[in-house]
């Protein structure tokens, strides 16, 4: 079994047919068929089901795909570095909340300390960042939600606090305390589905039997804040996104008394990932950044359970 076998297998899995894989790799279709057959004979498993001239990857094939993707990526990375002596390149994924507030500071510090390493950042929700980590399109992620895949290692590092937010014209602006019943029937602007922030708040609503009105769905914190300010909607956001507005008094925030919304941003990578010097250095910067306490210095009201 060689790297060539793995690259052919990945091409077939991605293309869905051997003929398309052959065209992509500029080899003959019999060569593709032979490589797949040799892999199946070596491991004594069926990697693809062949039904009505179509290929369907099996469960064994899916497992093999995960390993093959890792091996081929690391081989290509080694080739590029050893043959071209290029800089190490670190690809970091961040969820929207992290990317809007925390990531810029972390990247600035990383680049100052490690100018020899190129860094690329991608922003998306928890689900999309997780998918890109699994497909090896990203090296590490800093995410706000719960990791679903057992193939990813998630290390909680940065404390974060979600708060209920309202604008100056909302009736809650003059309140210092709220209760769960106060939220019933209120109009909200929510993050898109797949967001860790939304999932955490929806779990809270479910536990307390609260029904709200979702009037807007947005994937941008800036759009959510604008909606809160001009449409008298409520929202749940990371307090790190609204520090300046709270200090100026243009927004009001309520922290949940029982800390049901407290969470940690996690440093995430594939369990089989080779931890380069760049990854290890970024991990340390994230760890130090996580020691800051934002909420204690800000004027916030309280959302009590009783």
What structural keywords apply?
306 residues, alpha/beta, 9-stranded mixed sheet, two-stranded antiparallel ribbon, 10 helices, 13 strands, 43% helix, elongated
| Biggest sheet character | 9 strands, mixed
Structural class: alpha/beta
Residue fraction in strands = 25-35%
The number of helical segments is 10
Shape: elongated
What is the rounded Rg?
24 Å
Order of helices and strands: HHHEEHEHEHEEEEHEHEHEEHE
Q: Helical amount among residues, as a percent range?
A: 40-55%
Question: Can you describe what's shown?
Answer:
- By secondary structure, the chain is of the alpha/beta class.
- It contains 10 helices and 13 strands.
- The protein has helices spanning 3-15, 18-25, 29-43, 59-84, 96-113, 126-134, 196-208, 221-231, 243-248, 277-289; strands at 48-51, 54-57, 89-95, 118-124, 140-143, 152-167, 177-178, 187-191, 213-218, 235-238, 251-256, 262-270, 301-303.
- The strands form 3 sheets. Strands 3, 4, 5, 6, 7, 10, 11, 12 and 13 form a 9-stranded mixed beta sheet that branches. It has a two-stranded antiparallel ribbon with strand order 1-2. The chain has a two-stranded parallel sheet with strand order 8-9.
- Strand 3 (89-95), helix 5 and strand 4 (118-124) form a beta-alpha-beta unit.
- Helix 1 crosses helix 2.
- It is elongated, with a radius of gyration of 24 Å.
